[in-house]
Amino acid sequence: MEIEKVICGRALVNGELTYTEVGINDGRIVAVGKMVRGGDERVELGTSDVLLPGFIDPHVHFRDPGMTQKEDFQSGSMSAINAGVTCVLDMPNTKPPVSDHRTLMDKKSSIRGRSYVDYGLFVAVTPGINAGMLAPMVPGFKLFMGSTTGNILLNDDSELIPAVRDVLATGKRMSVHAEDDSMMGHAEEHCTRDHLRNRPAEAEWNAISRLGTNFPGSRINVCHVTTTKGLDLARGFGFTTEVTLHHMLFDVDRNTDAFYKVNPPIRNKADREGLMSRFLKGDITMVGTDHAPHTLEEKMQDFDAAPGGMPGVETTVPIMMGMVRDGLLPMSTLVGMAAESPGSCFGMRKGAIKPGFDADFTIFDLRKSRNVDVRSLHSRCGHSPYGGMSAVYPDTVILRGEVQVEDGEFCGESIGADICG
Fold it and tell me: Phi and psi for 173 in degrees, rounded to 5?
């Protein structure tokens, strides 16, 4: 067995932090153990360093193509790599929306060679979708049951059920924006409380229940769950679940302006605290950022006119690593929900330090922390609700064996590849 490089130090392997040597060859992990022989290069980590798998964000909106004034794949992937995120799954509500073979191929072609992280592109679930043809080219599909950015709403059971049946028959997982559009209000909005009134929790519960009644036990991932009832419904139907940091940190009566307008909405303090409690217990399958940037000018409009969505790909993992440092969140729980589970759920050999997996790593020194500086973030949108929060950023980030970030500074190239070819 040929080994090019061996990384030696404390690593999180199978949920335990222990001294480990990791052998790498041709961008893959080929050996993991207490002693790995060989290797032209041996890298010894510092005594305070910890080696983790590269993180995976299963839910980003990089706005490319069609809305690149907000974000493009270069700026979005630069944001991701600096946070220790080495793979992202990008949603299809771009312009045009990715809903068929042509739009998928066009997007793949336009992104190729412009990403600093590996990536997969989702296709939207639409009436008459040719899911069988598209499945080999995507890590998953996305169903929008509630209105949000883009015009790919599918909420009528007469069209939804046959389309979802075709998607699930491929064996690929389907992520869902689970808000029943028929239960949403359209009254004028002046603050996040008004936005919440228009998009009640019952819309989440009803959307999940409709899917569970028709497709129990299926490979369905409920995105950005906002309530513990929604979480329990999804778990009861055998679905995987995804949670965002903003739904666990912000609540509607403290965070009122358009910078906190997001779909689904931030909710009451009790919902936020309940969701955070379940997250800390590890009751949620995965963490996704729902990174959805809009320009500063758009978010500074009157609340009703401002679009919904907020950035998060460059801040979520570092803030959560700060929670690990403070003893609030077990490291193994975070890695499980933000690396291992997304990798496993979407069929990737990523997200764990195991032989055969991609050599994607993040190296953190938990002694180092700093507050999030919005001016230093790489998103084109130029704002963040997380400014000033305590975070631990990675010292080193490695993508398929190649160092992309060293000493906290980007030093790599746009080597990110499409995980589905």
Answer: -80, 145
| Confidence at residue 414, expressed as pLDDT on a 0 to 100 scale | 98
C-alpha 258/C-alpha 239 separation (Å) is: 31
For 299-318, the DSSP string reads HTS-TTTSPP-B--TTTHHH
The angle, 0 to 180 degrees and rounded to 10, between the axes of the packed helices 201-214 and 228-236 is 0
Catalytic residue set: 290
Joined together, the tokens standing for residue 331 give 């490291």
Residue of 121, 209, 216, 205 lying closest to 168 (CA atoms): 216
pLDDT the model gives residue 312: 98
**pLDDT tens for residues 341-355?**
999 999 999 999 999
Q: So where are the chain's domains? A: 5-52+353-410, 55-345
Task: Report pLDDT digits (tens) over 127-163.
Answer: 999 999 999 999 999 999 998 766 799 999 999 999 9
Task: Identify the CATH class of 5-52+353-410.
Answer: mainly beta
Could you tell me the CA-to-CA distances from 322 to 150, 197, 290, 328 in Å, in that order?
34, 33, 20, 9
**Backbone dihedral angles phi then psi of residue 345, each to the nearest 5 degrees:** -65, -30
Q: What is the CATH number of domain 55-345?
A: 3.20.20.140
Under 8 Å between Cβ of 22 and 32: yes
| pLDDT above 70 for 302 | yes
